[in-house]
Fold this sequence. Notes:
single chain, globular, 13 helices, 4-stranded mixed sheet, 5-stranded mixed sheet, alpha+beta
Amino acid sequence: MAKKALLLLQISFLINIISCDSSTKDTTTYFGGKVINPKSNQVILYTMEKVIDTFLLDTKNKFMGKIENANEGLYYFTHGNENQYVYIEPGDSLMIRLNTWDFDESLVFAGKGAERNNILIDCFLENENDRKLFYQFKQLSPEDFKSKADSLLALKMDTYDDYLENHQEETTGYKEILKTALTFPIYERLERYPYINAKYSENNNFPKLNASFYNFRKNITINKDSLMYFPPYSRYIRNYLYNETYALGHPPMRTKYSSKFTIDLLTTIDKNITLETTKNAILRQTIINHFYNNSSCNIHKGVFDTFLELSTNKKDKDLVESIVSDAKTVSANTDLPNFNLTNYSNTDHKIYDIIQNDNTLLFFWNPNYVSHNYVVSRMNYLSNNYKNIKFIQVKIDGDHNDRIQRLDIKSQYYLKDNSNAHEFLTSKMPRAILVNKQGKVVNGYASISSKNLNSYLTELNKN
């Protein structure tokens, strides 16, 4: 089916390309395609975090862009809340076809440069299947786990060698990307193995590893600027940093990371990552992820002070300081402040009139950080499992006409600019607040994606 779709795509788009002036076809790069069931009216192309161009969809949901003086390398494009990577060389005429209902699985490339990108998509999809396979191996002994990993690595290298044998013109840069896409997901799982194995073991202890278990590290460069935005590489680096932090003597942690572990992890990042932009990004991601994972409004001063000391990015520091301030403004065991919400009939309501002495989870969300689909999935799951809790969704920012279609409109609200709720949402980051029937805050800063939220919901659901 994929080959048939690819053939049809090639026939359709090569007609458009063929009319290009032959004098420019080797220096001008084309990027276009068709989006089925589009989620927005545009496709945005990036290199690292820099926007290269924004391509608008026409009435047939097609787009076509021309990139002058394109550099060879890894790019990525976004549409709606989805993204995928693409390797571009000057003179390419790359066309994509995708269906947003099945974004990655439906994506195919055609035109000049298509083969190298189709195999990268295959790598991505195979990695998702390998992830499920490795989950079954989590309780194997270190020797058996390493044997499984080595066998799969050998198969990946066979794929690599076969491809290059039939595509000898590929550049050194692309060869590195392809090898990374094939092998680094396996290296990532080798880094994860000790603490995943401990998590599911009866004694909750790390397995004993021999010296050869990490031999693969000898061939890995930790600070590779050109790869830091490529998920197989960046995920490996994150797992390496966690593993190095555990090696300092921390016990395995099943649900929450201790404040000491987080401080040591931030320090490990600072010592190992020399690229300033990358270091700042990992520091920011780590402190926010750990805070959200803990799903508690408790602020450990030492953790946040360590981040503020190590990060050199002012914007990141301002964001984290806003999160801290927001958490302190509405905290556990205090009365929920009074503020107005606006429903989608443009009527203002006081919060206490909405919750009406019910146990309530207020989820403040921002479309820049969370998708409609995810909110629908989590709200439906939580409301089905905690019947004695009212679930309210409040949009912090964005288009006030853009409500979530698959959730009850009576449970959806948004904030006008003059709502007092903005006083504890200065970061604009998503935030869940749990309130009991008496209007007391049970948890002032939770994440709907964290397992650590469940204990709060279970207790609140009893009353």
